[in-house]
């Protein structure tokens, strides 16, 4: 499986978006060695971030969503571990007789 290319620097993306919004859409992909789809996606995301488009998530919202998904994953793992530990401790207590105090 080929290694994925590293992400383009934000400055590079911003410059491409700026040029695309200025009207240079046809030659951008060839000149800067990116695909037309990539340029369209960057322009779309820029419009979402600027608030001129309302049909998707902004970059900040995407970052927050990714952070929350990671947090949910960790919390589910912790819950599963605690559940298994509770079951194990409950089973340990079944086999031993309880001490009674004669108070």
Automatic annotation (TrEMBL):
Residues 58-85 form a coiled coil. The keyword Coiled coil applies. Gene3D superfamilies: Winged helix-like DNA-binding domain superfamily/Winged helix DNA-binding domain. GO terms for molecular function: DNA binding; transposase activity. The keyword Coiled coil applies. GO terms for biological process: DNA transposition. Pfam families: HTH_Tnp_1 (PF01527). Keywords: Coiled coil. PANTHER family: PROTEIN DISTAL ANTENNA. This is IS3 family transposase OrfA.
